[in-house]
Design goal:
By secondary structure, this protein is α+β, with helices and mostly antiparallel strands. Helix content is about 25%, strand content about 25%.
Amino acid sequence: MQPRPRILFLDAYDSFSNNITSLLTTLLDADVFVLPIDDPLLCEVEAVKENQNGHHHHNGNGSHHQQNNGSTTHGVITNGATVNGNGSVNGNGLVNGSTNGTVNDTANGTLNESINGSRPASANNSLPINGSASNGPLNGSLSSKFTPSLSRLRTELSHYDALVCGPGPGHPDHDADVGAMRLVWQLADNDLLPVLGVCLGFQSLVAACGGRVGRLRRGLHGMVREVVHRGRKVTAEEGEGDVFRGVGRFKATLYHSLCGDVGQAEIAQADWEEGEAKWRSLGKCPDLIPLAWVEEEHGEDGLGETERILMAVKHRTKPFWGVQYHPESVCTEQEGNKVILNWFREAQRWNEKSGRVPVRDGHALARAARKPSLLSQLVAVSPGAQRKWWETLGANPTLRSLTVPLPPGVQVPDIVDAVEGHSVERIVLDSANAAPAASRADVRGRYSIIATCLDEALRVEHHVGDAYATVTASAAGLSDKVPLVAYDGVWGLVAALHEARRVPAEGEEDTPFIGGFMGYVTYEQGLHDIGIPLEQPRPHRRPDVSLSWVTKSIVVDHLQGVIHVQQLNAEGEEEEMTTDGWLDKTASVLRSLGGSTRSLRDTPELAPRKNRHHPPRLSIQPPKPDEYETKVRICQEYIAAGESYELCLTDQTTITRPVSDLVLRTSSASPPPLKKRKQQQQKQQDSSWTLFKTLRHRQPAPFASYLRLGGATLVSASPERFLTYDRAGLCSMRPMKGTVRKALPEVADGITTAATLEQAERILHVPKEEAENLMIVDLVRHDLHGVCGAGRVKVPELLKVEEYRSVFQMITVVEGLLPDTPADAVPPAAAGAANGERNGQNGHAKPVGLVARYTGLDVLAASLPPGSMTGAPKKRSCEILREIEGRNHERSLYSGVVGYMCATGRGDWSVTIRSLFRWDDELVRVVDKDEEGTEKTHEVWRIGAGGAVTILSTPEGEREEMFTKLSGPLRGAFGEGVCL
Ligand SMILES: C=C(O[C@@H]1C=C(C(=O)O)C=C[C@H]1O)C(=O)O
Ligand SMILES: NC(=O)CC[C@H](N)C(=O)O
């Protein structure tokens, strides 16, 4: 029997690589292995030394080598004089900037970063708008010290039947962008093997054969075009090696700014039209035979000139092929798969003819296309070590729950006030738009989840830059720093803690959450996870991951009109539970809520005006419109240079006002005594909790949330689901891209708005918006493929327009099925007594042999930061955005995620957007002009907003979009009267 063919994929840090390996695996029935273009093990020994301990570390993200990114410098373009990180608070008369020494070390540098302070020394002072075609001002170099070794590459290649050189950001003339790819074309005849170059890989082949790689007139990212080829007309004789032979017409997705120039502009128009000339090699590149083109019309009505874009080539004598389009994109038509099949048939034929047999034994460097599971990593590192308190505390829990009716008119905040009135720390995940009147059924949330008794919960916190995580049980007075090496990072620790407390699924549940982790993850944790180092030292000690293992929770089912009160009891804790009585007490408090009209009285809009406090004076610093537009242009310049396909540019607005909440320490705060809390709570007319109640009422969103955890406070009206997964391992992501403001009567400023869903659909179903969305869809497919594996990702819903309170949004649903779905999805244990009380006796025997099991956490850990907030390709785009948004600027909670992972394995996470956040350690001293120069301490709220910039964006349009997104949470929380 023939062994399964093996293909090596050289990964150039694209965000679509896993889609390509999936396509190759399923289509060619081959085993596909992945090696980054700058893998340290491909380097000469000197370079490998830099890789600290020399061990070959895959962070599992498919394309990121954490050790080898020490000198990641990009984009020296910047206009230092006009682009600073943020509007500066100092610019405002009310805020004199005399910041309190201990608290002004903000993460974001807004308060104290000078305009030029954070620019790289090499920054030049002019915009690179007129950068030359290939060697513009962007010398994107991943690692300048990297030297791939031809002999090492040769040895590695000997193991495979064929090689695919992947797409990626940058330019084929930049060594660091193509890494080892560049050496492939120089292989001696004896070492040759069949190669397919895709996009950047294709351009690298063109460049190696004498072609020039210049810029397209306008980049074509996420654009779908007809690929012109000879297909069925090709005769057997002339078509030898023509991988388009027998292929019908098809359209393909393009992702490029650069294009191969083999001299096609010199072909006379008549010869071009006549047809034969475009299939012949040209004097400039005698070795390359063109196989396909895209003919791009420019100018109105197609009357302008046609741009001849080379789409595919084969080498005249060597087994090299290349395609410029992306065969793996969700929008490349199926017919295009035949090209890949043809290529592989040609490849195998070439191997046969030349007697080449891949070496089947020996050690290859590349890894499998799918990353190993978090849990499998654990077992490898800590076999049967001594158990620590945080490993056993609350392990193997048992669920008890009561269900009570949801009294009519009672809202989520009423429940929180009744049950958690005196708690300082809170997590409330609120389907604020659950009422039928608040939204259309397709976007309505069903459940709300409230964490209670957070001081009893086990908490995991991690600050990027630390080699440990802090595990705390504050009520029990326990706290430990857990070194993360043994867990392969914070996600391994979280997976281990979850695994020890896992409750076997009971089949169809009527609650999404019975207890488990709840909390947030910052954008910076995501940057770390994809191998982007943060500037060190960071100016704060705030946690980037803060998750609490919640054992006492309340789930509101808005559809069924019931409330589940649930408690997870640790092994042997049942006795104590009866004395604690939390379950019964809480249920009776909730029952007594019925009949009360408090929620109506508490609704800010209905509260009599005179009873309201005078709103505290706000000082608002929005981004400067012209600076934002400049940043959009810089983004577009990077895109035109081939460095990115789409960049989600964002900025932050700061709002300062007198301190309203009780201030907590940044991490692991133990709440103040109850008496003090009660006093505080009473004073808090304008507390963050009130801001949340106001915002949820004005901007009812399916993923609203309120978090007060450690020193972080988040008030969110997010409409965007990041990731959900069920107990059967079905993962679903819902990237949102394409935004149009709803026409409100008071808005008459000439901005594109839509009043109805139909109008919004017309506005959003245009090439620019669809491309924006499609690019993120392909990126999200890549993230899911990296965990779920080949052939396990689908797109059930593409480019759907949805209606929210103040905007319309275009969304796509991408689904993936986890490998090795839980082996313990066993029949339900005793499923509950009468009267709505369930008492799941899940037993204590943990199934064994599940070490390789994947969970939703694997997907979460592999997919941050959310692709809809970065652009594509993710890593390079994040690096560029850091240059533009400010190297020391942290997006922080904004662009991160908030959500939960239930003890049974189900989870749901939203993207933190349309929200405001505050850190307790960020305070400013302000001179109050009205009160004769008295100094006051103000808290600082931040609202992030932005949007995806593509080559088709306009600076004004992007600026408008950013302000539209900003005004939702700003006015929603602080009042309609707030002006920018
Ligand atoms: C960047 C934001 O939103 C993101 C960008 C969107 C877009 O470009 O259309 C839409 C939703 C979000 O993924 C924001 O709200 O600040
Ligand atoms: N998708 C790609 O490989 C892009 C290649 C190159 N960076 C370009 O923009 O043209």
